[in-house]
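Handout, section 4.2: multi-component inputs.
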Amino acid sequence: MSEKLMVKGTEAIAEAAIRAGCRNYFGYPITPQSELAEYMSRRLPQVGGTFLQAESEVAAVNMVYGAASTGKRVMTSTSSPGFSLMQEGISYIAAAQLPCVFVNVVRGGPGLGDIQPAQSDYFQATKGGGHGDYRLIVLAPSTLQEAVELTYLAFDLADEYRNPALILADGLMGQMMEPVEFPEFRDLKTLPKHEWALTGCNEREPNKVTSFNIDPYELEKMNKVYQEKYLRIIKKEKRWENYMTEDAEYLFVAYGTMARIIKTVVRKAREEGIKAGLFRPITLWPYPYEELHELSEKVGFVLTVEMSAGQMIEDVRLAVSGRTKVFFYGRTAGVIPTPNEVLEELKKKIGMVKV
Amino acid sequence: MGTKKLNTTVEVITLKLKSSDFGNERIFIFLGPFGSGKTELSINFALWRKKLNKKVSIADLDIISPYFRVRDHIDFLSKKDITVIAPPKEFMHADLPIIPPKIMGYITNTDYELIMDIGGENDGAMVLGMLKDHLSEFGYTCFAVLNTRRPFYRNEDSILELLDRLQSSAKIKINYLINNTNIGKETTVDLIEEGEDLLKKVSEKSGIPIAFSVIPDFLDSEILIGSEKKFFRIKRFFSNDQIDQEV
Amino acid sequence: MPARGYIEINADKCKGCGLCISFCPQKLIRFSEKFNTKGYHPAEFHDPQKRCIACGFCYQMCPDSAITVYRFKGVTQNV
Amino acid sequence: MIKEMFLKKPKSLSEKEFTYCPGCHHGIVHRLIAEVIDELNIREKTIVVAPVGCSVFAYEFFYLDGTVAPHGRAPAVATGMKRALPDRIVFTYQGDGDLAAIGTAEIIHAANRGENITTIFINNAIYGMTGGQMAPTSLIGMKTTTTPYGRDPKKDGYPIHVCETLQNMKGVAYLERLTVSSPQEVIKAKKSIRKAFEAQINQIGFSLIEVLSTCPTNWGMTPVEAIKWLKENMVKEFPLGVFVDKTKGVN
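Output:
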C-alpha cells in the first residue's frame, strides 16, 4: 500500500485496474463516467498499455471481446444507456468464457434518463440483460477504497472462472472524492497463463474461441459447463457485510451508495433507541441468499432501500422466503434518499407493524 | 441532485486574509486540474467577499463536471445575497456545456465583484479564451488551485507543465497558486504543509506566489494563531459527511 | 505430345459443382456416373490420350480444395 | 518420369470440409487466403475472425487460431486482438450483410483508424445464410425473398459501394475489388490478397479485398451460369480495380 491520494471514484477504479494488470481499455464517453476513460487515456500509455476510444459502446464491447480472447487483461466502462448497448457483446463474451471487467456507473433511467446517480440497472446486471442463460460476477462497492479492492479482485475472479465481472457503481460513487490507498502494481509475469488464448498457433494445435454450436445437444453441453461454473462461483464467491445486525430488531438491506447512507440511518436510529441493522450484499451475483435468510428470521421486518423503483427487493424476497415482512423504500431518477427521510420511513413501518 | 439536500448546515467561515491581499481587481478566476477543489473554494471565496460587504456574483463556468457544481448550491447562495450565474434552471442538470450569456454583463458591471469557477484542466480553462478580451479590459486575479495529493500532479515538473498548459488554454496569466492539498476528512496539518513545501518549489521556479493554504472546517483553527503563513479556512460543501454522518 | 502431369480428385470432397469441368482447357474432366458419399456425382479425371498440361485451372476454380495437381519433372510448359 | 506435387490444399486450411453450397466462391477465397498465409510463413502468428453469415464456420476451416464475432463486429473484435497483440497478424472474413449493413460503423472506423488488420469482404449481393433476402449490395431490380418485386431504390435504397466509400479514408493502405470467376482472375486475386496481408505485416494500415462472388443457390443458377451473371451484372454495378495502394516502395 502506498500513501493516500484524493481521488474520484472513476479514477479509483481506473488506477486499481491498471495496478491489477489491465493494460487494455476500450470505451466510449458517457456521463457520469467519462473521467474513467480520460484517466485511462492518460495513464495507460505511461505503463505501455493501450487506450482506444471506440466508435460506439457496441464496438467497444467487441474490442474487449477481441483483446480478452488473446488472454490479456482488459476492461471497459460505461453508464446505463451505454451498458444497454453492450449487452450483445456481453452475452457473447460470457458464452465464449472470456475474462474481462465491465464497469457500469449507473445513472437515472429508463431511456436517456438523466445523469444523476441511480441503482436502476440491478435487473440488467444480475438477471441477464443480454440473451441466453449467462451470469456476470457483479460486485457493488460502497466506498472508493472498496471500489479499488473490488476492481482488483474482479480481474482475478474473471481470470479464475473465465467469466466477465462487473463493477456496479452509481453516479455518486463515480463522481465523489475520497482518500484512497492503492495496492501495489501486479507483476504482469505473475498473471495467470491462459492455454486457451488466441495468440497464434505456434508449436501447438490451433485454439478456437467460440460462443456457439448449432447442434442443440452440443450447445446444451456448453451450457452445462457454464452452469457448473456458476454453481462453483455461488459456492465460493458470495460476499456481504453485516452492520450492527447482532441485536437488530429491524433489518435494512441495501447495497452500494445506498448502503452507505443506511449506515448513517442505522446509527441515527440506534441513537433514538431503535435497534436497526444493515445487511449489505457486496456480490449482487452471486447473491448471499442464505446469509440474508438467516438474519431475516430474527427481525421484525426487512426494509429494502434502493435508488430505484424496487429491483433488488425481488432477491430480498427470495432470500427471506416469507419468514418475515419485506418492505421497500426507494427514490428514482437520480434522487438520493436522505438519512432522515429513510429514518422516518423506518419509524412509519415500525408503527404499521405494531398496529 | 441529491447531495444538495445532504448539505444543510453552514458555519461562518474564519479567515486570516485582508480584502486587499490580492490587489484591487474585482474579478477572481479559479482554475486548476479536475477535483482540485475549485468549486468549493469559489463558493467560500464568494462568502468571504460577501462578508467584506461587497456586491458579489459567482459564475458557474464548469462545462466539464457533471456533479458537484456551484449551481447545486444556488438556493443557499441566493439566500446569502450572492448572485449565481449559471445555466437556465431547465438545463441545470443537463449534460451540456452551456456558457450562461449573463456572464458578459457581470464582467462589465463594475458594481459587482465576480468570482469565476472554471472546469477542470485545460479543457475546462478553454472557456476563458472567448472572454479574454473583456477580462483584460476589466482586470482580474487568477488563482490556480492545487491539491498535491491528486493523481498526475504530485511533483514539481508535472505542476509546472500544468500551469503552462492552463495559461495557454485559458489565454490568461495565473497570478497566484493556492495550496488545497487534502485527502478529505483525513486531512491533517502535516499533510497541508507537505503540499505547501512542494508548491513553494513550484513557486520559486514559476515566479507565481502562493496566495494561501486551505484549511478544512474540521481542523482546529488554533494552528492558525501565530503562524506567519496565510490560511483560508473553508466550509466543506462537497464532503461525504452527510452520507456518513457520525451520530 | 506426352502428358505434362495429371490430377487427382478427392471424390468424397467434391460437391459436383462442375467449375473444374467448365474451365479445363483440354476438356479432361467429366461428371462421374457414380455417387459420392454426399450423394453428388463427383468430377472425374479422364485423360486416356495423356493430354493433361497440368495448368492447374481446375485446382484454381475448385471451391472445395478437392483437386491435387501433379506435374512431371523435366517436362516444360507454359501456362 | 518423376512426378512432383504442383498444386495441393494449403497447410493453413484445416481438414474440415466446407459447409458451402456447390460452386460457392467462399471455398476458392478461403484457399487463396490459406495459400498466402503459407507463402508468407505467418500461419503460427495469424488469427482469423469469422463473421455471422454463411462463413460463420470460417474459423474452423482455417488451420489457425480463430474466433467468431457477433454479427458485423469482426473489425472491432480484430481491433481488440491487434491492439492487445500488435505483432500478430489478424484478419476478418466478412460477407455483405455482416460488413455493409449491420457492421457498417465498425468497418468504417477500423478503416479510418488505419487499424493494422486485413479484411476479406465477400460481396455476393444477397443474404445466403438466412435464405436469400436483400443485401445492402443487392442490385437494383434484383429479386430476393424480401424484394419479391425487385429492389426498388425509392423504397430499398441503392446498392452500397464499399470500396468507393472507404477509398477516401486516410487510414486505408490497400483496397481492391476483384473476382475469382476464372482461373486467371483467381491467380490475380491471390497476388492482391498477398498485398493486403503484406500491408499489415509492414504496418502501413488497413487493407481490404472485396471479392465479387456468386451465390448459385440463392440466385437460382448453376455455378457456371452464376459466374456468367456475375460478369454481366455485378461487375457493371461494382467496377473492378485497385482503389488504394500505398504498398509501393514499402518493404
